What does this fold into?
Amino acid sequence: MTTTLTASTEIPEISADDRAERLTEAGQAWSDRIDAKRSSSELTYRVTGFGEGAVATRVTSGKHEFVVDEPAALAGDDVGASPVEYALGALIGCQTVVYRLYAQNLGIQVDEIKVTAEGDLDAARLLGKDPSVRPGFSGVRLNVEITGPETQERYEELRVAVDENCPVFDLFANPTPVEVTVTKA
It folds into this structure.
């Protein structure tokens, strides 16, 4: 089966005022929901993946779909980012959202934000060559570039708030219990 993928998604432009209004409204709505019923903040996400091609996976999350693959050197067709690249992308995406949210909450102006993530991975474990190395990232570095009129100290205050509250940052920074079940279909 041959699959055709679209290369980009159009992201609507938004003014700083409209972004601030949306962040404030969403934050207030969630705050009200949680105050009314504490358990309303407990969310479960479900994502499903099906193996296709050599080593690719078609992933569906709600109405969204994307492909995870590997480069040819790891038996892939390179039709999508690799799993570890998506993991870093998820971290970048979550950081961006939480920077915007907490900037709004703390009254810190952020005009533009760019996040770059680098992760170090020793593939020797993956390839069965060295069981003494970690199979995942041995280190991850984030570089957050912010433009705006605030002082470096204010942006550092924002960084602390983001690091304390970003869900995907927490996944990288702390162990998360994982349960795996394999079933014959």
Observations:
- The longest strand covers residues 137-147.
- Residues 91 and 171 are 9 Å apart (CA to CA).
